[in-house]
Design brief:
The structure is a homodimer of 328-residue chains. With 328 residues, chain A is an alpha/beta fold. The first copy, chain A, has two domains: 2-141 and 306-322, NAD(P)-binding Rossmann-like Domain (Rossmann fold); 148-302, Dihydrodipicolinate Reductase, domain 2, CATH 3.30.360.10. Helices cover 40% and strands 21% of the residues of chain A. Chain A is built from twelve helices and twelve strands. A six-stranded mixed beta sheet of chain A has the order 3-2-1-4-5-6, with helices on both faces. Chain A has a six-stranded mixed beta sheet with strand order 8-10-9-7-11-12. In chain A, α7 crosses α8. At the A-B interface, α6, β12 and α12 of A face α6, β12 and α12 of B. β12 of chain A pairs antiparallel with β12 of chain B, so a sheet runs across the interface. Chains A, B: NADP(+) binds at residues 7-12.
Chain lengths: 328, 328
């Protein structure tokens, strides 16, 4: 299957590396970064691409843009991993619309377009007989979307709840283990690269809320906006609160929850037993799916990282490549 | 999609109940239990079937056998959930062979045929252009097989390890929590219906080993027999060993492991930290998949139960019904 990659940062290069190293049946025919692009409908050598990008900072010629590639390259699936503004969802949203309109499958790692425009994009995909896949948008390497769409098919999901943000989980783990204050733990997370210079998006629960909105709209057919999520972050949590919890063999985690029966989305710090399945450590994510037939199924794994994101993208591509007709 | 069900015990009836209650697109055209059977190529009312079985102990007429149904009914997929001897794999094995030879998809919950004859059966399925699915054979409701085949596609699995037997896990949980001896905990497990009158199959690690053989052969392309698994059960574990572990915040669990790089399969009680992800309680199962791209992904859930098994069967059926061409 021929793929065009938009965005050639660490995720894009990770995908190229995987295509180079293993027998996926995937062929890269076009790549664009923010400054350049290249097209070869017979297939581009992925390692040559990675080298060129490392040596020159460019992946191709300056005149070849993402839009040009979407409209002119030969590809079956667009891999859309551009750096995108989470608020406006651009430029990702425009690229996805254009590719779907041209009857091409799309795989994206960008949360913005899926959280904001899922219904419109899915409709566009259906009209054009192609697929829109977005496993990488929620919980990184954990195949939560695939599990909900396929592995637990036939089940009714009553509730889904868990840890959707690794930065917050790291801070809470360190506050509990080392009796750090919130500020000390945040500083440590920043030094280790787990938190951004401006950590608002993570610590105020917005990132977790966006992931809930994606699952609510894409999997449960709701029509939610970020404003519909009741959000409390961890930024005003005191070390005293954690110490009190610890005394009773409890701890605090930032839990995101979708109540599918009531249609309620919520992100908040919650006190839970230390031996609870969801009490994972450091930057891990963990999600429990509460179903009517299979009971509670919990998935735990790395919720972020370039290679983990590339892994989710590749599994989406292989699914498009191998499974046809009638499936979401 | 039309399905024929062989075996109308609690799993078979659970499947019929699900078909009756929700919009699966599945139509039951034939059913057989060990004494009777019925065929209606226009579709059988699932609730009427369940009532008939409850009232008369039969699901149809005495002359209609499983073999007759396989050869004469109209169906796209055979649901093979008969009570089957784990040693000989019969009658399941014969039914599966016959249905695949007739160009019908097969979904089974029986471990025997998949553990013993996977390569032969897969070959037969491929030759006839149909699918053989067996999600229910390993860890009940946990979609471990689907996760390995699809959700983590593109990943190389280095190691896979976890808790594959709920009976042993219950006994070990109770020994640790209540300081019971092995015999006391086993007695309790029996009273609660978690252990058979003859618990050998579970407590000696054979059940866990069979599940490893299934994964090794079906997912990792090995050619293993139960004799190839290094097995130590929990039946000679002392409460002293558990108490010693508990003193250091450790505990003991029966861990099954496939080392995919070395081709080694092993089941044994292991000492692990009490806060380890795999330390789940009571009859739960938990499996960690150690991959090169996605890192470690852990799945936790109910490893047994009629409705959980029915859930796995239904997801296999919906996958066959919705996804075509080229996928395993």
């Amino acid at each position: 299957m021929k793929i065009a990659i938009l965005g050639f940062g660490s995720v894009g290069r990770g995908i190229a590396q995987i295509v180079a190293e293993r027998d996926t049946g995937l062929v890269i025919t076009a790549v664009a970064d923010s400054k350049s692009g290249c097209i070869d409908n017979n297939g581009i050598d992925p390692l040559e691409l990675i080298n060129r990008k490392e040596e020159t900072g460019l992946c191709g010629e300056k005149g070849i843009t993402a839009e040009y590639i979407i409209e002119n390259a030969e590809y079956d699936a667009l891999v859309e991993v551009t750096p995108t503004n989470a608020e406006t969802a651009e430029p990702s949203l425009g690229y996805i619309r254009l590719a779907l309109s041209r009857g091409r499958n799309v795989v994206t790692s960008n949360k913005g377009p899926i959280a904001k425009n899922y219904a419109e994009l899915k409709d566009l995909a259906d009209k054009n007989g192609v697929r829109l896949k977005y496993e990488a948008t929620v919980c990184g390497a954990i195949p939560i979307i695939h599990t909900l769409q396929y592995s637990l098919a036939g089940n009714k999901v009553k509730r889904l709840y868990g840890i959707f943000n690794g930065t917050c989980n790291y801070i809470l783990t360190r506050m509990a283990d080392e009796k750090l204050t919130y500020k000390e733990a945040l500083l440590e997370a920043r030094e280790l690269g787990y938190a951004e210079a401006d950590p608002t998006y993570d610590v105020e629960g917005i990132d977790a809320a966006i992931k809930l909105v994606i699952l609510a709209n894409a999997i449960f057919g709701m029509n939610k906006k970020i404003e519909d999520v009741e959000i409390t972050g961890i930024n005003s949590l005191t070390s005293q609160a954690l110490e009190l919890a610890e005394e009773d063999e409890l701890t605090i985690r930032l839990i995101g929850e979708i109540n599918n029966e009531k249609g309620i989305l919520k992100v908040s710090p919650r006190v839970i037993p230390k031996n609870h399945t969801l009490v994972v450590r450091d930057t891990l994510n963990a999600v429990t799916i509460d179903t009517d037939l299979a009971g509670e199924i919990t998935l735990i794994g790395k919720g972020a990282g370039s290679i983990e994101t590339a892994s989710a993208i590749i599994s989406d591509l292989l699914f498009i490549s191998n499974c046809h007709d009638g499936s979401p």
